[in-house]
Design goal:
eight-stranded mixed sheet, two-stranded parallel ribbon, D-Maltodextrin-Binding Protein, domain 2, alpha/beta, signal, 286 residues, PBP_domain, ABC-Tungstate_binding
Length: 286
């Protein structure tokens, strides 16, 4: 890991343990969407303790959990989450809400992308236009859930992106969107961060509507048996609230500019898993 991001994470962890009773390691998309500004005050009243969110990529959040540096995880890379729990680093993984991914890019749409287009056609068009010098693609490049899904899509299209047109930002979702806006570039974003993003400039939604773009979020507790110092009582209280009828209603009530940002789905875990299986099947079939 580069030194600067590592030091930043260390500093955030220091603040979380110094000032908070519960630490949540989380994906940046839930932070960038404004969801935590809305939910954390509600949760703090619910549990009677302060909460600190360390917003990093899902890969880094899972690593913090593996090291016992968080009490609870909110992440969105199901394959990695299942591996994480199977390895004994986490317990009680519960899917609780979703949104979607899509590609944004310049309104001129040099690759000719369309909503509902199949993945192979869309990403082959992006690569061809990139190689021709007609577009730039800004990748998170940070082992986040969004980056993991992006690479899953490139794999589905049987493409290994490389070249000057393919820019890896190593940054969170909001920062990557700012870079894409500044360079008039394409990028993969989650829908909620996009709704809350103010600096769109010439960027518009270009490619969406494929099962592989389904974006499931889950909550995972860190096992007290492995890390006795974790605040598991309060972590469980938060997890229970997120999947409760009250918590699910609160998630559905969060809107950005009149649009619902996330859809709660804890009450239908089977449907959540089926949607993720459909995403994986889409990857395999393309």
């Amino acid at each position: 890991m580069p030194i600067k991001p590592f030091l930043t994470i260390c500093f955030l962890l220091f603040l979380s343990h110094a000032k908070a009773d519960v630490t949540i390691a989380s994906t940046t998309s839930t932070q960038n969407s404004g969801l935590y500004d809305y939910l954390i005050p509600i949760l703090e009243k619910e549990i009677g303790e302060s909460i600190k969110v360390v917003a990093v990529g899902t890969g880094q959040a899972l690593k913090l959990g593996e090291n016992g540096d968080a009490d609870l995880l909110i992440v969105h890379a199901p394959k990695k989450e299942i591996e994480f729990v199977s390895a004994g680093h986490g317990v009680d993984r519960r899917p609780f809400m979703y949104n979607e991914f899509f590609i944004v890019g310049p309104s001129e749409n040099p690759a000719g992308l369309a909503v509902g287009q199949d993945v192979k056609t869309a990403f082959a068009a992006i690569e061809a236009a990139g190689q021709a010098g007609e577009l730039t693609f800004a990748s998170r490049g940070d082992d986040s859930g969004t980056h993991f899904r992006e690479m899953m899509i490139w794999d589905a299209a049987a493409i290994a992106p490389q070249g000057d047109w393919y820019l890896q930002t190593g940054s969170g979702m909001g920062a990557t969107l700012n870079i894409a806006a500044g360079k008039n570039a394409h990028t993969l974003t989650d829908s909620s961060t996009w709704l809350n993003f103010a600096n769109k400039q010439n960027l518009v939604k270009l490619f969406a509507g494929n099962p592989i773009l389904f974006n499931q979020y889950s909550v995972i507790r860190i096992p007290k048996e492995k890390y006795p110092h974790v605040n598991d009582d309060k972590a469980k209280q938060i997890a229970d609230w997120l999947v409760s009828e009250t918590g699910q209603s609160a998630i559905n009530a969060y809107h950005i500019k009149g649009e619902q940002a996330f859809t709660a789905n804890a009450s239908d875990a089977a449907a959540a898993e089926a949607a993720e299986e459909a995403a994986n099947a889409s990857e395999a079939s393309n």
